[in-house]
Amino acid sequence: MENSLVSIQILPKTRNGEDVIPYVDAAIAVIEDSGVKYEVHPLETTMEGNLTDLMRVIEKMNEKMIEMGSRNVISQVKILYQPSGISMGQLTEKYR
Fold first, then answer.
1. What is the pTM of this model?
2. For a tag on the chain, would you pick the N or C end, based on fewer CB atoms within 10 A?
């Protein structure tokens, strides 16, 4: 079982104040390409996996924003680390 849930909201600083949605889409594509389980929500995306692997995904997301032309990136991250194992379903099953 995976040991972490990590939620991220990525806020790229665009060069000329252009719309950030294409940047956010590219950040989500980085998550998709990583193969980790994830869910997109209106204000953040939550990933499920090994903490080390998820932190690498976050690093790649930030790098992608810079490659696309962002001057800098703010990543707001929430981490639930539970060595005995955790899943998104465990935390939300009573609401589904």
1. 0.92
2. C
